[in-house]
Design a protein that fits this description.
The protein is mostly helical. The protein has four helices and no strands.
């Protein structure tokens, strides 16, 4: 699935890579996706590796789960808040 990043997203990813937090843009994006997945599973106490294994198990199960509008609204509100903090200079990542 091809994705188009906004110029701000590209700058943010490049900044993370340039600071040495990740070795490549692919690695930085994978970490971002993992963070979103973890945030989408409230109350999960396991490691990110355990979550990834559970997510892969779910994907391979053949059972599709469709997120409802409330989920997407909460996700959008969360990412909007992070973007606003970033623009204000109060980064939490």
């Amino acid at each position: 699935m091809p994705l188009q990043l906004t110029p701000e997203q590209e700058i943010r990813i490049r900044t993370v890579v340039d600071t040495g937090a990740h070795r490549s843009t692919e690695e930085a994006i994978a970490a971002a996706v993992s963070a979103v997945e973890i945030a989408a599973v409230p109350g999960f106490d396991g490691s990110s590796q355990e979550l990834e294994e559970l997510l892969l198990e779910g994907l391979n199960s053949g059972t599709a789960v469709v997120a409802d509008a409330d989920y997407w609204n909460r996700l959008r509100a969360g990412t909007d808040a992070i973007a606003a903090e970033h623009q204000a200079g109060t980064k939490h990542w």
